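Page 47, continued from p. 46.
Same chain as before, 93 aa.
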Amino acid sequence: MSAILSHGMIAPLFLAWTPFLQPAPNAEVWWWLLLIPMSFGVAMAYKAIRVEQLSDWPRAATKMALQVIGAVVGIAVGLYLLVIVLLPMLPAE
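Result:
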């Protein structure tokens, strides 16, 4: 298979993208959206163990996921302000 790729021949369509060797096409545009399912997955698993009543689980998991998303967005805004706004104000020697 590597002989096909090394001689400049066209690889079959099923080999057009290898997920572990190449990044996903246009991933730089939407990678940050993966925060939403990740935070909900972690919150659901954590609250499934920690909540006392099963009827409280959906509300508790949603609340925790929104807290995680809010914290990450807050950190991103803070770092943006630090790097883009405050650091350029420092004197360069």
